[in-house]
Design brief:
The complex is a heterodimer of chains A (152) and B (150). Chain A is mainly alpha-helical. Chain A is globular, with a radius of gyration of 17 Å. Chain A starts with 5 loop residues before the first helix and ends in a 20-residue tail after the last helix. The longest helix of chain B has 32 residues. Chain B is globular, with a radius of gyration of 17 Å. The mean pLDDT of chain B is 92. Chains A and B meet through helix 7 and helix 8 of A and helix 4, helix 6, helix 7 and helix 8 of B.
Chain lengths: 152, 150
């Protein structure tokens, strides 16, 4: 059996990955306290997963490209009443759902490339999270006396 | 007769490779001007990582459906980073580099890993790292609101 690339598995499993993500979200009281329709809740995911699949097919080692869609998603979530923490929570669930999809298709995965692709997935999802968070972020002003105790 | 290579767990590899992985994290962070614009010593920059790895390795060794409470150290880290001038976006960047360095370390040692177990452990790592990131961001944003209200 010829091994299947991670990109091909994710492309084939877009619908099930989104459903899996939604099932996790529906059990998360912090997220469901903001009432949204299915399309409002999941509308950003097809583009995010497409960006990820495209990135996986590029040479590894390239930095994540700028995603205007991720930025727009963050702005929309801010309007919908999400906190910054809730945006991080959605992203956490997305990573878990993607890896869960790969686990379900483990028998077809090319193991020699698997962990390189895992690196790319984590890099891309967190890069998109960072861009989504730009609506929430204003630069901090360092305090004059650094906090006590725990280093770094 | 060919000798079979002994498999190591993800937790064992991360524990054994702690020092080089933290060095790799620091090397990558030092390439990101957004982060290095805040001048910190290497010790201040990396001081939270041993505890974060300790929490992660402990979680990997627990039964799979166990979800221990997120470490109080994550919230303390958020407070400290806020005082040092970090934004939430910068915390996400640090956390992204953490995952990249961690999964990169596993890739370097993939021949020692059990192929049937590795993605289950990858899921635990992503879950734990993002849960700690949430707590750190929550703490930083809370400190920011408190400063604004003062």
């Amino acid at each position: 059996v010829k091994p299947e690339s991670v990109a091909s598995i994710l492309e084939r499993e877009v619908e099930s990955t989104i459903q899996n993500w939604l099932d996790f979200v529906d059990q998360d009281a912090e997220l469901t306290c903001i009432p949204l329709s299915r399309i409002e809740r999941t509308g950003h995911l097809p583009k995010l997963l497409l960006d990820l699949i495209v990135r996986l097919r590029l040479d590894s080692g390239l930095p994540a490209p700028i995603s205007l869609a991720a930025r727009d998603h963050g702005a929309m979530r801010l309007q919908q009443g999400y906190t910054a923490t809730m945006v991080v929570e959605e992203s956490r669930i997305l990573q878990v759902s993607i890896f869960s999809t790969l686990q379900r298709n483990l028998c077809g995965v090319d193991f020699s490339r698997l962990l390189l692709d895992v690196v790319t997935i984590a890099d891309e999802v967190d890069s998109q999270l960072k861009q989504a968070m730009s609506s929430y972020v204003t630069p901090a002003v360092p305090l004059k006396s650094p906090a006590f105790g725990l280093a770094g | 007769m060919m000798k079979l290579k002994e498999l190591a767990s993800v937790a064992d590899i991360l524990e054994r490779e702690l020092e080089p992985t933290i060095k790799e994290w620091l090397r990558r962070v030092n390439l990101i001007p957004e982060l290095t614009d805040i001048p910190l010593s290497d010790a201040d920059r990396t001081g939270h990582l041993p505890k974060l790895y300790y929490d992660l390795i402990s979680r990997l060794r627990l039964a799979k459906d166990t979800h221990p409470p997120v470490s109080a150290a994550a919230a303390a880290h958020g407070h400290l980073r806020r005082a040092q001038g970090y934004s939430a976006s910068m915390l996400i960047e640090e956390s992204r580099v953490f995952q990249v360095a961690t999964f990169g370390a596993l890739h370097l040692h993939q021949s020692e890993l059990d192929q049937n177990q590795v993605l289950l452990d990858v899921m635990v790592i992503a879950d734990e790292v993002d849960a700690q990131l949430m707590e750190t961001v929550r703490s930083l944003m809370g400190a920011k609101l408190a400063e604004a209200a003062a």
